[in-house]
Structures are given as C-alpha cells and as structure tokens.
Prior knowledge:
This protein is mainly alpha-helical. It has 10 helices and 3 strands.
Amino acid sequence: xxxxxxxxxxxxxxxxxxxxxxxxxxxxxxxxxxxxxxxxxxxxxxxxxxxxxxxxxxxxxxxxxxxxxxxxxxxxxxxxxxxxxxxxxxxxxxxxxxxxxxxxxxxxxxxxxxxxxxxxxxxxxxxxxxxxxxxxxxxxxxxxxxxxxxxxxxxxxxxxxxxxxxxxxxxxxxxxxxxxxxxxxxxxxxxxxx
Length: 194
Ligand code: HEC
C-alpha cells in the first residue's frame, strides 16, 4: 500500500523527470557552431514558423489556394523579386507553373534581414530547387531602397527585379548594353542618373 505521503510526492517526481528530459532534449538541439550550418538551421526554423502553414511542410503547397515553392520561377529566379515578395507580401492574379492563383500572402517585413536571407536560401536549396544563396546584406539593400507601400500586385512584382547596387546582368546582356551605350551615350547617361 502507498502511504498518502508518497501519493502526493509521486506527481512531483514525474514533474522533475519531465523537466530533466526537457533539458536533455534542449541540450541535444544545441546551436551548431559552423556558421553555414547555423544559417541553414535558421532557414528551416523560419520556414516552419512562418511559411509552412500555407506552403506546406515540404513546399508542396495546397492546390488552388497556396502555390508550391518547388521549381517555380518566383523561387529560383531573380533574388531581388523574391526578397521584395517576402518583405511586402503579394496578391492578385499570380501565375505559378501554369496555374493561376488569386489569393493574398501577407508581408513578412517584420523578420530580420538574416531571417529572410536564411528562409529564402532554404526554399531556393530544397525540394529539388538549386539556386544561389540569398545573403542578409542583399535583403538589407532591397529593404533600404524600397518605396513599396502595401502588398505587391503580382503583375508589378514580376517586373520588380534586381538588387540595388548589384546584380550584374548576364554576360551576353552586358555586351549588348555596351554596344547600345556607345550608340546612344546620352540616353544611357540619363538612365544612370535616374
Ligand atoms: C497566409 C498564407 C501564406 C503564408 C504564411 C506565406 N505565403 Fe507565400 N504565398 C501565399 C499565397 C496565397 C501566394 C500567392 C499570392 C497570389 O495569389 O497573388 C503566395 C506566393 C508565394 C510565392 C510565389 C509563388 C510561388 O509559389 O513560387 C513565394 C516564393 C512565397 N509565397 C514564399 C513564401 C515564404 C518564403 C513564406 C514565409 C516567409 C510565405 N510565402 C508565407 C500564401 C502564404
């Protein structure tokens, strides 16, 4: 027979054991020291907390409601556009892999530059996607230069490419541009001033 004292004490021991188990689990989850691993871990966490509810745990999306993030031009294409999308959100008719969506994604500008860079790198480098890393400094530059108010209209966002102060166009474009500039130096200059 259990005495009444041990009956009271039993829940206490269970609680102590649970707390100990929790600390043990937390110790296992310790932050990796390698900066690259930390960045990857951060991207995964931000994704799970802020994107997975709509886009699915594995970026698969929900047909008719939330587009997939797998191998879409929005994800693996221009980095500046992708950063703008997450900073300000997007709505209106959006075409993704031949499907038209017309729904709303809220702004995520409350996330830090590092969180945004990490989550975008995460979606660009998982589920069959294989695109360049997004760096926090790139998010910062887009954010600082942004004059966007409210969420983007998808059709406007599609055109809003590039990162201020970088993004050299592909080599073929550079050669063409150089020719065009020589041919019309004045116009090129006024464009630069804008
Ligand atoms: C509330 C639901 C919701 C959340 C949360 C959300 N999105 Fe979206 N997202 C959408 C919807 C809806 C669209 C399509 C918008 C439209 O129809 O104009 C979209 C579009 C996109 C697109 C472009 C289309 C595609 O599938 O390639 C990307 C990229 C994207 N979201 C990334 C993210 C990332 C990264 C996060 C987390 C930081 C996130 N989304 C969080 C609902 C959401």
